[in-house]
Amino acid sequence: MSRTIRIECLRYHPETDAAPRFQTYAVPFSDDMSVLQGLQYIKDYLDGSLTFRWSCRMAICGSCGQMVNGVPALGCETFLRDYYPGTVRVEPLNHFPIVRDLAIDQTDFLAKLESVKPWIINEKDSPSEKTHVQTPGQMEEYYQYSKCINCLLCYAACPQYGLNSAFTGPAALALLHRYNADSRDEGKSERMQVVNAEDGVWGCTLVGYCSEVCPKDVDPARAVNQNKINSARDYFLRFLRK
Amino acid sequence: MRAYQRPMAGWWRRNPYYLRYMLREASCVFITAYAFVLLAGLWRLAQGKAPFERWLEGLAHPLPIAFHAAAALLVLYHAWTWFKVMPKTLPRVPVPDAAIVAAGLAASAVLSAAMLWAML
Q: What whole-number distance in Å separates Cα of residue B63 and Cα of residue A37?
């Protein structure tokens, strides 16, 4: 721990603060220390009142998403050494209400996640009855979208969500596509209502930053825009069927 | 629970990525304006040789030339960004993204060159 870096944290304690403020800490660090470890150092040795979420420390749980120098990132896979000798500015994820310090309110996303029915809908059979056979090609259709860890970096990257929080948003739509594209699933018609809605895929203007910041290479922008084709097809086919 | 919602004002200035996105969107304004200038030329052409020549003369001034230069640069930028996101908007095809982008840009360059050649 030969070097010391300045970490500037956004602080907000609703019981005392009318608005967020910044507080700077001098944190000694080694080359292998992540921004998350920097925050843990602050919590353990400098200021026990700092609040932030974390769990796995290995980009699996999706808990430690935050803005690092204005860019949505997982604190656990962002390293202090890359910012030295500059200052690291850590803020809660953009576009979400701040509950306390770096912790945001995820309620809105959880409701959206539930609305896309992120599970395999198949009334005819259950896994206990027979094995679901799937070719590598069929698996490839959805596999990349199944890697989403709900870290919400894509929502923090999406200005459309920031401007209109009714927009279903990148991760929920990517997960919707993950199940719609699964050969075992038969729930597409139920999910198309979410896709076709005013705040469904058409709320996206293809800024594309969601896919840039995704730590798991999910490419939500692709999932959303694939479903613009599906939505248009669904609309015209419904029109023709009448 | 009293949560704090940060304002969005000035969001597009906070990140170069957003700035590039806004430039992409704003380029449409210039492209639309250029289309109207071109339509005006067509309208003047329909009126006869003299009105068309007057329209041409009107364009040979520093301000219209600067506008056309800006519009041309923005069309190029728009084309670049358009082809860059094209793979995300296509149904799944067994071709790498980079090949789709390269094919789009190459086709655009060839067609532009062909049109230029036909005009000159």
A: 57
**Complex prediction ipTM:** 0.91
CA separation for the pair A177, A168 (Å, rounded): 13
Q: What count of other Cβ atoms lies within 10 Å of the Cβ of residue A4?
A: 12
Q: Which CATH number fits domain A107-241: 3.40.630.30, 3.30.420.10, 2.30.42.10, 1.10.1060.10?
A: 1.10.1060.10
Q: Does A105 touch chain B (CB under 8 A)?
A: yes
Tens digit of pLDDT for each residue in A73-108? 999 999 999 999 999 999 999 999 999 999 999 999
**A188-196 vs A170-180: helix axis angle to the nearest 10?**
150
**Domains along the sequence of chain B with CATH:** 11-119 (1.20.1300.10)
The residues spanned by each domain of chain A are 3-104, 107-241
User: Is A3-104 CATH 3.10.20.30?
Assistant: yes
Task: Give me the torsion for CA of A200, A202, A203, A208, rounded to 10°.
Answer: 110
The model's pTM? 0.92
Give the mutation candidate from B1, B2, B4 for the A interface (greatest A CB count, under 10 A).
B4
Closest-CA distance of chain A to residue B22, Å: 9
Report the DSSP pairing between strands A98-100 and A21-29.
Answer: unpaired
Q: Which residue in the block uniquely carries the two structure tokens 């036909």?
A: B118
Mutate to test the interface with A, among B1, B2, B5, B6 (most CBs of A within 10 A): B6
CB contact under 8 A, A159 and B92: no
